[in-house]
């Protein structure tokens, strides 16, 4: 089955995540890279957004899931995001998400978790 890939590079947001004392008191920045392989189930009609998966909806789901409540671990957050995407978007056949903390360590650009799942 043919697919189309939708991707986000370095979606930036502030989230309540972590187990350390300072992480429990304040938000911190996250960077999110995501790829979604989507079934091409119909022809694209340039004047009709309904003929494609609207990536604004994917972005909203990611942002909402990452900012709705405090989460202790990046592993938990990445699982929640992937599960939500697969539950809400039936056209998505596979998801790869990378969530990173750019301020976690001073000696590297970021540390994070990458998760891949398909149907």
UniProtKB/TrEMBL annotation:
Which Gene Ontology cellular-component terms appear in the entry?
A: cytoplasm
Homology family: Belongs to the DHNA family.
Instruction: Name it.
Output: 7,8-dihydroneopterin aldolase
Give the protein's biological function: Catalyzes the conversion of 7,8-dihydroneopterin to 6-hydroxymethyl-7,8-dihydropterin.
NCBIfam families per UniProt: folB (TIGR00525), folB_dom (TIGR00526)
Question: What would you give as a GO molecular function for this chain, any one?
Answer: dihydroneopterin aldolase activity
Q: In which pathway does it act?
A: Cofactor biosynthesis; tetrahydrofolate biosynthesis; 2-amino-4-hydroxy-6-hydroxymethyl-7,8-dihydropteridine diphosphate from 7,8-dihydroneopterin triphosphate: step 3/4
The organism encoding this protein is: Pollutimonas nitritireducens
Record carries keyword S-adenosyl-L-methionine: no
Sequence ranges assigned to domain Dihydroneopterin aldolase/epimerase in this UniProt record:
6-117
Membrane spanning residue stretches? none
Q: What class of enzyme is it?
A: lyase
A single GO BP annotation from the record?
folic acid biosynthetic process
Question: What PANTHER family does UniProt report for this protein, alphabetically?
Answer: DIHYDRONEOPTERIN ALDOLASE 1-RELATED
UniProt entry keywords in alphabetical sequence: Folate biosynthesis, Lyase
Its Enzyme Commission number? 4.1.2.25
InterPro entries in the cross-refs: Dihydroneopterin_aldolase, FolB_dom, GTP-CH-I_C/QueF
Kindly give the Pfam families that the UniProt entry links to this protein. FolB
**Catalysis: reaction(s):** 7,8-dihydroneopterin = 6-hydroxymethyl-7,8-dihydropterin + glycolaldehyde
SUPFAM superfamilies registered for this protein in UniProt: Tetrahydrobiopterin biosynthesis enzymes-like
């Amino acid at each position: 089955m043919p697919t189309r890939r939708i991707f986000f590079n370095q979606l930036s947001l502030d989230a309540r995540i972590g187990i350390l004392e300072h992480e429990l008191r304040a938000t911190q920045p996250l960077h999110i890279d995501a790829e979604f392989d989507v079934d091409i189930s119909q022809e694209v009609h340039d004047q009709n957004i309904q003929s494609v998966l609207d990536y604004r909806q994917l972005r909203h789901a990611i942002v909402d899931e990452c900012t709705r409540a405090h989460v202790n671990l990046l592993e938990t957050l990445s699982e929640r995001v992937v599960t939500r995407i697969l539950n809400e978007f039936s056209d998505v056949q596979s998801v790869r998400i990378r969530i990173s903390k750019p301020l976690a360590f001073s000696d590297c650009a970021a540390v994070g978790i990458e998760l891949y799942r398909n149907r």
